[in-house]
């Protein structure tokens, strides 16, 4: 059935920004002289949450100061939309399906990405709007409250295990994974109801629902 709303992650789901972020994190860690073999620990999550909850060379340091430092290393070039992202948003708009961005990024980055995507959304929930970031469900719960819809009447679209778990724990009706950042089996193991290569098939699903 057609959802009442689409709840959309941003980085790695709508825009091809994960390579930019990974380059920024790698440069930040190198400047600090720190070695972290698996940068996926940051994928889909707020950096300040990772610095607090995950063991690493940053343990004991101020997470907000580290976040401010990371931001300076993120490349400034605008990311490209992922295949099918613009079509998905256009299909939602033409079908009368509300849209929310639910992201671990900050407001300035969301504004930059939405200008690239060129399609307005109804609600934006950023890292600044919640106390606990993904995989906590707070962002998705807040998006549904702001939209005035029940979570089980929505679809979420996510590229990370943390995001998938966040949407599931919020009670989202259908969680669609896009395997742009992680292998499909990783997203399935996290609980995604279905996994697509990119957002393109979702536009067709929405149009036919």
The backbone outline, from C-alpha atoms, is: globular
- CA radius of gyration: 16 Å
Arithmetic mean pLDDT: 94
Order of helices and strands: EHHHHEHEHEHEHEH
Structural class: alpha/beta
CATH topology grouping of the largest domain: Rossmann fold
Say how many strands there are: 6
> Which strands sit side by side, in order, in the main sheet?
3-2-1-4-5-6
How many domain units?
Answer: 2
**Uncertain residue segments:** none
CATH class designation of the largest domain: Alpha Beta
The CATH architecture of the largest domain can be named as: 3-Layer(aba) Sandwich
End-to-end distance: 5 Å
Biggest sheet details: 6 strands, parallel
Q: How many helix segments? A: 9
Percent of residues in beta strands?
A: 5-15%
**Helix content, binned percent:** 40-55%
CATH superfamily of the largest domain: HAD superfamily/HAD-like
List keywords for this structure.
2 domains, 209 residues, 6 strands, Rossmann fold, alpha/beta, six-stranded parallel sheet
Q: What would you say this structure looks like, in words?
A:
Strand 4, helix 7 and strand 5 form a beta-alpha-beta unit. The protein has nine helices and six strands, in the order βααααβαβαβαβαβα. The chain has a six-stranded parallel sheet with strand order 3-2-1-4-5-6, with helices on both faces. Helices cover 43% and strands 12% of the residues. It has helices at 18-32, 47-53, 63-73, 85-95, 107-117, 138-147, 161-169, 184-190, 200-208, and strands at 5-8, 98-102, 123-125, 154-158, 174-178, 194-196. The chain has two domains: 5-17 and 79-208, 3-Layer(aba) Sandwich (Rossmann fold); 18-73, no CATH class. By secondary structure, the protein is of the alpha/beta class.
């Amino acid at each position: 059935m057609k959802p009442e709303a689409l709840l959309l992650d941003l980085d790695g789901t709508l825009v091809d920004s994960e390579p930019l972020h990974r380059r920024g994190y790698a440069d930040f860690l190198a400047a600090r002289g720190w070695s972290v073999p698996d940068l996926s620990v940051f994928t889909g999550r707020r950096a300040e949450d990772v610095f607090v909850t995950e063991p690493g060379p940053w343990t004991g340091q101020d997470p907000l100061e580290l976040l401010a430092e990371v931001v300076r290393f993120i490349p400034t070039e605008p990311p490209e939309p992922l295949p099918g992202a613009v079509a998905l948003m256009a299909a939602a708009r033409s079908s009368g399906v509300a849209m929310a961005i639910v992201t671990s990024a900050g407001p300035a980055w969301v504004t930059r990405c939405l200008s690239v995507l060129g399609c307005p959304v109804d609600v934006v929930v950023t890292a600044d709007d919640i106390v606990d970031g993904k995989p906590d469900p707070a962002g998705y719960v807040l998006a549904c409250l702001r939209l005035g819809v029940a979570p089980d009447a929505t679809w979420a679209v996510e590229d990370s295990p943390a995001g998938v778990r966040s949407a599931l724990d919020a009670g989202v009706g259908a969680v669609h994974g896009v395997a742009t950042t992680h292998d499909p089996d990783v997203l399935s193991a996290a609980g995604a109801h279905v996994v697509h290569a990119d957002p393109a098939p979702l536009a067709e699903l929405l149009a036919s629902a």
